[in-house]
Write a structure and sequence with these properties.
mainly beta; Jelly Rolls; 1 helix; 12 strands
């Protein structure tokens, strides 16, 4: 069966991702309130992903992380987010953007330290064999054919 792809959509009306977070617990619950709308998937894009993500006040975009093979790019659509990297904290406001080169090891995430929701566009490639380091948490991830596989830093799987 061939599913017809839309020509265009109103991004904020796109359906949220069915699974709020891929992280295992106790990390999954840390993403409460975050809403990702997988825009690239709506159009059948397979080389890179595009998400429109809403982060409520006091919430995180993700755990602080660094990809081995995936380049990432974020553009702030509305609101203010604090970008935390190995260099420290940087305020990002509407219209600002940031990029993260794969393999550099500079862990990053966005935190909404304000009182209003913030919305950003995130773009990342889907290079096979990617892995993710989480320097602040007992977590590593590897991209398998079936999706992300999460382990403790000692290699034991999360239950």
């Amino acid at each position: 069966m061939n599913t017809k792809m839309p020509i265009a959509v109103l991004a904020l009306e796109a359906a949220p991702r069915a699974k709020p977070s891929n992280y295992p617990e106790p990390f999954k619950s840390m993403m409460t309130g975050r809403v990702k709308r997988p825009l690239g998937d709506l159009f059948g894009l397979s080389n890179f992903g595009v998400n429109l993500t809403t982060v409520p006040a006091g919430a995180l975009s993700a755990l602080r992380h660094a990809h081995s093979k995936q380049d990432e790019f974020v553009y702030i659509v509305s609101g203010t987010l604090t970008l935390h990297t190995d260099e420290g904290a940087t305020q990002l406001s509407t219209g600002m953007c940031a990029g993260f080169k794969a393999g550099k090891g500079n862990a990053h995430h966005l935190v909404n330290e304000g009182s209003e929701p913030a919305v950003y566009l995130e773009v990342g490639d889907r290079t096979p064999g990617d892995s993710v380091a989480y320097p602040d948490d007992d977590l590593v991830a590897k991209l398998a054919a079936s999706g992300w596989v999460f382990e403790h830093k000692d290699g034991t799987p999360y239950a």
